[in-house]
Write a structure and sequence with these properties.
Elements lengths: L2 H4 L12 H5 L2 H19 L1 H4 L4 H8 L1 H15 L7 H17 L4 H25 L4 H20 L10 H7 L1 E2 L3 E2 H19 L1 H11 L1 H6 L4 H26 L12 H11 L12 H19 L4 H39 L1
Antiparallel strand pairs: 1-2
Helix pairs in contact: 3-16, 5-16, 6-11, 6-14, 6-15, 6-16, 7-8, 7-9, 7-14, 8-9, 8-14, 10-14, 11-12, 15-16, 15-17
Amino acid sequence: MDNKNLEIRDLKVKEKFTIKKFLLRWEMILIYILVLINIVLMISKPNLYFEASTIPSIIQSGMDLSFMVLGMIFILMLGDIDVSIASIMILSSMVMGLIMDAGINSVIAVICGIIAGGLCGLFNGILVAKINMPSVIVTIATMSLFRGIVKIVLDVNVLKNFPEVFKTLSWHNLFGFIPLSLICFLIFAVVFSVFLHKSKFGRELYMIGNNKVASKYSGINVEKVKIIAFVSMGVMSAVSAIFFVGRMGGGVSSTMGKGYELEVIAIAVLGGISTSGGKGKVYGPVIATLIMSFLSYTLGLLGVDANTRKIVTGVILIIAVLIPNINKQLFKNIKEFLLSKKINN
């Protein structure tokens, strides 16, 4: 069979562009929310907001999560989930730190850390794709497994010997006001966007997320695509480890990073990625990443404690999941009403 026939094509009829529809797109709504949060912060803390270091610091605070958000897009696009990502991040950090302590070159340490993250993702992917275990069960188990390994190896010790470039990437500002970590994030976002929206792999992700059975019959290697997605997630967790370690000043222990997985999922879902799979675009989660950074910082300045901020994250996740379902039901009711009206006429 010709490979061209195996390509998944978008059969939707392209609607005519209108300003009204564009301004009401979910991604535009996210931009409005981001602007609103900035206005609240500007009004409540004007002196602090207009300091040169404030905005870069806010953005930098969310960058250690941001790379995992990109990986989570692929996972959610398949209709799966990965809650082991924070544990993979810490395990990758440990590998880098131990290799640096052994006096080995920092480049090798980073490569080994990324390989460790990829292997963790591969392990998840094989269990999900090859053995057909539910991703949520697999990753809950490996979340404990990976963090348990770190706990056994480090015990109460803290790793502090990491490449100096980690701090530079996490805290340095280009031209004094553009975070270097943001530039790195946007570069990765462009790469992920190309893979998701312009490649065969991206079309296969959408297809599998919408209908796994039909994807198999159309000739897509579902197992291979799933494994690649989980390996990508593991690699991005390792990349996040670089910025996490840099932002924390180089100290890594087995207890760090807990709860990051829920924040990453919340950001991806808030960005418009459907938890049921097959829906979403990369630029939504990119905006949502900035929203969560500014929201967390603003709530902190307003005196909201850490536990309440976790509640806010949970509420945002619930709302983000509910909104698509509400819209779907609303459009269904409108369609049925118009159809019944047409029949009566």
